């Protein structure tokens, strides 16, 4: 029996035209998220348009490489399932906190990304044993915190950027901040996404964010508010040069902050692996889980070297698998190849970098809100009625995590090491939730077979992590 006729849906191969169309569909589903992260980070770090365009190109290029590794596998890396990899929103607060530190900047971001990738590679074989310390009460709380922390970034984007910008004599008020036109376009983008989500069905509904950004972009162009400077002069093809922002700076607290975020992302990835395995009729073993998680680590290292950020499984593409029923890993690998092609087309990157901040801000409010909503969804599995102590875990963890968000300078007079730790709301919230869970609910019990590498991941874990 040929591979094209195999009964295993994961190994099914398609003719090249079908492969391209199905792969492009995966790219369209994840493109808005993949482009939004470098736009958000680049603007928050006050990078030039050319540098933001570089981030977009590098991000698409790295997305493609990591996706192919995950789908096809290399040695003991890659789960060999139809898993689309993309840059993660979850890490954005930690990345912005590092990048806006004048002593670190982008070299500090790159160092933290690479350092967290090495951390994931080291802990991936043991992660199945550690998942027990992150039950739904912890992961749900952390996801809620991440979404709330991101919201300030999204709101500032919708308002036209940061309230204060650099002037000739220091920081001055941003005259474009809160401009009625920008607020109106952000509101139109937000409403468009909601209406499109309500009206469209199936695959098209997955493109609501991309369409909403397109509507806002079109309005801004018609109003003469878009500067396409650099698009005409950009080359048609560009080689992605590693370490374009200089050699990485490895700073302990920045790396630790991103490692804490990666733990949450690894738990999310585990849930996605289990979901895809269930859809494809494959039992996910501890060995499979390790190979899949190693790809997260390799993705970070590749991303850092290529001037971009952290990578993880994209949930929207898992949803697309459910909608279409196409489980072929070769389709996803074709999507990865398309992303690589887009990454070496600078004109595409420059057009993306030309999108005004208030356009992306309207979409960011939805996307960041969905991160918090995901946390609420996970917390819905927690029993708050019979165990009221769980309320304290959520309440205190969220409260502590919001301190640096609402009061930027509150820890400035503390020793430098303590200040850097406490200024990361995600890091504080993660530690608080994990420790409070142990305090109120005791040390989580070990799974009896979790040490067996070849054994399947226990079914209750799949239910908790999905």
Structure, described:
The protein is mainly α and 466 residues long. Residues 1-5 and 449-466 have low confidence and may be disordered. Helix content is 64%, strand content 3%. The protein contains 19 helices and 4 strands. It has a two-stranded antiparallel sheet with strand order 1-4. A two-stranded antiparallel sheet has the order 2-3. Helix 1 packs across helix 2, helix 4 crosses helix 10 (252-280) and helix 10 (252-280) packs across helix 11 (286-305). The protein starts with 15 loop residues before the first helix and ends with a helix. It has helices at 16-44, 49-72, 92-99, 105-123, 127-130, 136-158, 180-199, 202-205, 208-222, 252-280, 286-305, 315-324, 329-343, 346-353, 357-379, 389-406, 416-422, 425-441, 459-465; strands spanning 85-87, 164-167, 170-173, 311-313. The chain is globular.
| Major sheet | 2 strands, antiparallel
Number of helices: 19
Report the helical percentage: 55-70%
**Rg (C-alpha, Å):** 22 Å
Residue stretches low in confidence (pLDDT < 50, at least 5 long) are 1-5, 449-466
């Amino acid at each position: 029996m040929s591979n094209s006729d195999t009964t295993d849906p994961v190994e099914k191969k398609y003719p090249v035209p079908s492969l391209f169309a199905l792969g492009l569909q995966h790219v369209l589903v994840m493109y808005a998220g993949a482009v939004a992260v470098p736009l958000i980070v680049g603007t928050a770090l006050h990078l030039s348009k050319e540098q933001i365009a570089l981030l977009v190109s590098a991000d698409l290029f790295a997305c493609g490489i990591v996706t192919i590794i995950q789908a096809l596998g290399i040695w003991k890396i890659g789960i060999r399932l139809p898993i689309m990899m993309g840059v993660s929103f979850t890490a954005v607060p930690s990345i912005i906190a590092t990048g806006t530190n004048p002593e670190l900047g982008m070299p500090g971001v790159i160092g933290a990304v690479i350092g967290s990738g090495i951390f994931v590679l080291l802990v991936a074989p043991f992660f199945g044993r550690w998942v027990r310390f992150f039950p739904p009460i912890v992961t749900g709380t952390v996801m809620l915190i991440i979404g709330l922390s991101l919201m300030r970034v999204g709101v500032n984007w919708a308002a036209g950027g940061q309230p204060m910008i650099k002037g000739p004599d220091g920081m001055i008020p941003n005259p474009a901040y809160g401009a009625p036109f920008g607020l109106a376009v952000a509101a139109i983008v937000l409403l468009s996404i909601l209406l499109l989500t309500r009206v469209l069905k199936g695959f098209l509904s997955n493109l609501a964010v991309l369409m909403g950004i397109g509507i806002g972009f079109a309005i801004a162009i018609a109003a003469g508010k878009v500067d396409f400077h650099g698009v005409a002069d950009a080359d048609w093809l560009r080689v992605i040069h590693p370490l374009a922002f200089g050699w990485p700076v490895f700073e302990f607290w920045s790396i630790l902050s991103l490692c804490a975020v990666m733990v949450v992302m690894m738990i999310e990835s585990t849930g996605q692996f289990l979901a895809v395995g269930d859809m494809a009729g494959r039992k996910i073993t501890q060995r499979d889980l390790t190979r899949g998680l190693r790809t997260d680590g390799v993705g970070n290292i590749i991303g850092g070297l290529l001037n971009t950020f952290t990578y993880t499984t994209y949930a929207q593409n898992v949803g697309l698998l459910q909608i279409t029923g196409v489980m072929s890993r070769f389709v996803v690998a074709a999507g990865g190849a398309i992303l690589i092609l887009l990454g070496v087309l600078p004109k595409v990157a420059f057009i993306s970098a030309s999108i005004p901040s208030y356009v992306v801000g309207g979409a960011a409010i939805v996307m960041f809100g969905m991160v918090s909503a995901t946390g609420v969804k996970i917390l819905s599995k927690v029993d708050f009625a019979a165990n009221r102590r769980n309320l304290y875990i959520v309440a205190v963890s969220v409260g502590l995590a919001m301190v640096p968000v609402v009061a930027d300078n509150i820890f400035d007079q503390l020793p430098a090491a303590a200040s850097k730790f406490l200024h990361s709301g995600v890091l504080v919230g993660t530690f608080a939730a994990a420790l409070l869970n142990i305090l109120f609910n005791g040390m989580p019990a070990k799974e009896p077979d979790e040490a067996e590498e070849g054994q399947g991941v226990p079914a209750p874990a799949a239910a908790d992590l999905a």
